[in-house]
Amino acid sequence: MKRLLGENEQILLTTHQHWIVLIEQILVEMVLAGITILLVTIFLITGGGNPGIALGYLLLIIPLVSLIRDVLKWWNHQYIVTNLRVIQITGILNKNVTDSSLEKVNDVKMVQSVIGRFLNYGDLEVLTASEMGVNRFTRIANPIRFKTTMLNAKIRLDDQMREGASDASIFTIPRLIEQLDELRKKGLITEDEFNQKKAALLAKIS
């Protein structure tokens, strides 16, 4: 994960889809395994041969492999908030990374059902000014904490950008005053105009 981070980028929160998503998938695998066991048992009772029984139990590998795949898929589906971005990572071997810059995030919409509020999961829609428009996070665990962490990180980033712009203006203003002074010496502006513009520039850094 660290190799995906930029310079001075730090992870603030990492979460997954709620465990109920994994349980639903596991239940499906258990049902398939149960049906397979039932069919093999019936085949055994009715006098099926050993090769048929061995083949039947061999079929149990299919739901077992599918179960392992579902667990890995759930674990590798990550939602991450950094001090600069919101990142969604999917895939076990082939990774699919979708991210949204915090400075482009306009709003966050959260939807929780009654069960979702009880079990602490919900859906988030991150509305951005990028080409993507909307980034959807489905049945994410602890959505309120995720939303709060993301919005707080955006506020801090916006404050840092404003401070940076203010610092830049501090270094620019003396140069502007020098240029105004040159215009005054050349007679292009009057003494009063120079003093007024100089006072206005100094007021920005006072």
How are the elements arranged and paired?
Blueprint: E1 11-16, H1 19-45, H2 50-58, H3 61-76, E2 78-82, E3 85-90, E4 96-101, E5 105-111, H4 114-119, E6 121-128, E7 134-141, H5 143-185, H6 191-203
Antiparallel strand pairs: 1-2, 2-3, 3-4, 5-6, 6-7
State the secondary-structure class. Answer: alpha+beta
* Strand order in space, largest sheet: 1-2-3-4
Q: What's the main sheet like?
A: 4 strands, antiparallel
- Gyration radius, to the nearest Å? 30 Å
Proportion of residues in extended strands: 15-25%
Poorly predicted runs: none
What coarse outline follows from CA principal-axis ratios?
A: rod-shaped
Q: What is the CA–CA distance across the termini?
A: 44 Å
Order of helices and strands: EHHHEEEEHEEHH
- Average pLDDT level: 79
Q: Kindly state the number of beta strands.
A: 7
The level of helicity is 55-70%
In short:
This protein is an alpha+beta fold. It has six helices and seven strands, in the order βαααββββαββαα. The protein has a domain of 39 residues.
Q: What do these coordinates show?
A:
There is one protein chain. The chain is rod-shaped, with a radius of gyration of 30 Å. Strand 6 and strand 7 form a beta hairpin. It contains six helices and seven strands; from the N terminus they run E-H-H-H-E-E-E-E-H-E-E-H-H. The strands form two sheets. It has a four-stranded antiparallel beta sheet. Strands 5-6-7 form a three-stranded antiparallel beta sheet. Helices cover 55% and strands 22% of the residues. The mean pLDDT is 79. With 206 residues, it is of the alpha+beta class. The two termini are 44 Å apart. Helix 1 packs antiparallel against helix 2, helix 1 packs antiparallel against helix 3 and helix 5 packs antiparallel against helix 6. The protein has a domain of 39 residues.
